[in-house]
């Protein structure tokens, strides 16, 4: 499927892409230009102006500050693809002009090393994010070219990539290193797919293949550097190679370790390369790592990363709800990876995870105004503990303002503005259209048998009625429509009608396959009635023992203090909680709330300062109310929990 | 009651004092002399030799290393009081000789500032523990004098205290500061009580009174020091005054904050001063803080300190079981404080807490061999999480070897070797003997009406039969015997007999008061039948919601993987668990185990990598086995939990 051929038209999602277009992108532009009152300056544009010689001054912000402008341009590229906007195009073109001016003669582009440490290029691949920034700018270049047809940034980044290719590799005289933060690997694949230039694919593969070889490049580089670090003064201990997944060659990795964003960005590139090069070892590594991450290290919300120490995975089944990390960027990276796995092989489990992360962890990270974000997405919050117990300081009960230097908000922007690209894939032989996500949209495909337009309408996430209307400008066309059977639908085979008549179908890899010669105007109805379910966690996930979560369709629910009082830990589910659901149009912009029977511990008979006393089973019945997780934290700050005692 | 008048003779406790005498004290002496193979050197003795000019070299160990020798000498003093030992006396006398040689002309004594930073005395009261080390050496001097009658160390420390008195105070020209780690305050009270010198009491009171006055001494000192710290290079931010409880004048403090050991050492001195000076404001502060600590910030094991960040209190009802700190030293400090509160007013609640901390948190910190210790005493352990989740690295599943530099092990040694001093107090008017702890012992009291000897026999913690035999060398004596009614006894009034005949009694402040003219040979039987109880936590303690702990008498129980398999979180209590108890002579040296009915989640039907699925209530009945908490971690490392789901 080519880019730009899907447009979202959806009651639920259109609001989000519009928010990104009308609020997030303009707001971030102000932030990049240090014009947001009360926010720390970003310095991003200023750094480029200094590097370009247009302004005097010192480098500001983080060593990877350039990537903020890159992510913004990438989001702009996606946005312009579906919503042309001359004014925004002008702003972006000017920024690209500036980037061109900041580029060095030899193609090198990085404002930190140009302004602050000239002559120190490539001396600290471990910490300095040079190739990472290059990767983000390549992604921006590809998105902007695809969205606008304009080549300027693409040319800049091809020049830079050519230069990088001349510096890195196994050939004599080249640096045999790779980046401390994976990102350029997946970006170079995009650049290859856009330009057709094989060298970019080869360079990406070099970075992936070289990673983890012994002796460690990072350890040797650290020795050469005099054992110093970009981040702290003085000498530091040898690099933790698990942190950036260079502890083993990637094909030998089976368990996700280290910084979770680095990990999923790398797995994304691995899956790309497995598909494009047919590398069985890479594919098997992807499949093993997928099973590990999504089977043993993922929260029910699609969050990954169990500890804020190193923003990292910890180990199998260790999924604490209160000291969680579950960084927004990590779930976004998981979505990137899931899409690549779907391209490798259309299996519904990949889309199930993609949808889980999207509707819960990622969507919940942004406030309804598009200006406040969670970086950490907890499943259990006690605001006083976040404030007063340092082990939970990273868990914020309130979304934070988008400050100058930030990774998650622009990542949300680029994902939501390209969400149209996540709905469908087309099989290699161009005979099957896979519908992974049920999001209202218009899509056009050039299939083996001709041009097909699909108009999808969906009532998700509130109702499970999905319709596809087939338009065939060139007349009847044979092709297979493959509709995902979501893992949250568990009442047998979903009903499917074509032209109002029940249609039988076979299920392959979790997709209902409807293979026929379609006529113009055919409609397919795909019925996935939503049921509210109690969900249990695997018994080895200690943190969820004796508890249940509520899920309805793709949405995970939570209970908040605003509806249920505090402490929410006092609440438990009745044996038969008789869950009832209703659409509350006035609540948080409208949502289906779930109510049920429970009981609360009766604290009335406890003296204030008697901490322990003989057990008396004193509970009183209580009706609880749960709201979709993605909407939590949009009222007064309070306690929240996804998992409820039963 | 004078010191040295109680000797423990108890089936349960004698083993511990013997362990301290025969193993802990000799082992620590080797450690102080850097002779423990495989352990980091302590440098403690070596530092004193260098300071005394007997050896060349550099200071080694922590800035407060002197306190290790002090705590050892204090334990030796207690041990010699009840078990004279010429060989040990010789060793200690030689060490004291060395200390004397290390003392400066003007009385100053601190090997760090003598050897490493001469001329920098008193320039970093915040970090450098100078007065803290002095305090520990004063405690040692008092204990050694009381235990042996030898004055040498007492004289050394009086000289140092006189010098400190000449340096600190509100008078012009004096430093108006106080120590970053409270300790000298309680030590000076002991010195006053031993020597009768009022200046020491006054100096202690000065340190307590001055603390928290504005502007902050520590903040000004930090400015004068150029905003540096002993602990890290470069400049640091302003001191966190809550950390060392100097955020407010002590009389205005109501909530325990900051480093928990510093806090309870300070509260101990405050209670001493309240008693000795009749200061109502101090007493009220002690009572407020006591209610806060023991009512809202104490674990069921008597542990305090909810976070390892700063080894600190967090806030009311925040008592996480798995990321807990509950440092051994903090519970020991709580015991010190409780004893002072009992001296202020004999109320059983103080002794209840003392007993809770002693039998659970403190006793559990030491291995049965006396050579391995927990610093952190968790209520829930998953060894893999301790190893792989950095937020739990401080929680060790195995007791650690006693390394050179350590605070908790010598603190355990000095507490256990002076435990005889915690059993009784005598009222101010010398007419009532309070029995706070039920520990077999022989005690002699000089009461208003004459000399009384009490021989206590106790079957605790396994059986609740306690007997007192009164010996009156001078014939009949009228006095009141006040026996604590423990808060774990909840079946009405315990039965009490005198000479085999039931005796009625009144209860005052939680003590059964038996007031009579006693005859030589009278025996009192005090029956506290032990019942195994399920205990619940206050509903505001979120971490324990829906759970129960098992307690029998003073002992809190726990379940271990060794008896119950893993994960222990899979286990829950039956509605009617039918708890049964039996003495298992072969288990961990003999203990009462508790068994009961529960159920475990059935993991057999779960695929390995399916983390979430619709709830099915699949449990199977299981019989669980709980052991006393203090014995946990003495078998193969495994999971442990005090709180069980119900």
Automatic annotation (TrEMBL), chains A, B:
Q: Which GO terms describe its molecular function?
A: hydrolase activity
Q: Which domain of life is it from?
A: Bacteria
SUPFAM superfamilies assigned to the protein according to its UniProt record, in alphabetical order: Six-hairpin glycosidases
Q: Residue limits of the Non-reducing end beta-L-arabinofuranosidase-like GH127 middle domain?
A: 432-529
**Which biological process annotations from GO are given for this protein?**
carbohydrate metabolic process
Keywords (alphabetical) are:
Hydrolase
Q: What InterPro entries does UniProt report for this protein, alphabetically?
A: 6-hairpin_glycosidase_sf, Beta-AFase-like, Beta-AFase-like_GH127_C, Beta-AFase-like_GH127_cat, Beta-AFase-like_GH127_middle
Among Pfam families, the record links this protein to: Beta-AFase-like_GH127_cat, Glyco_hydro127C, Glyco_hydro127M
Non-reducing end beta-L-arabinofuranosidase-like GH127 catalytic domain: from which residue to which, for each copy? 5-420
Q: Tell me which residues make up the Non-reducing end beta-L-arabinofuranosidase-like GH127 C-terminal domain.
A: 533-645
Q: How is this protein named in the record?
A: Glycoside hydrolase family 127 protein
From which organism does this entry originate? Answer: Cohnella zeiphila
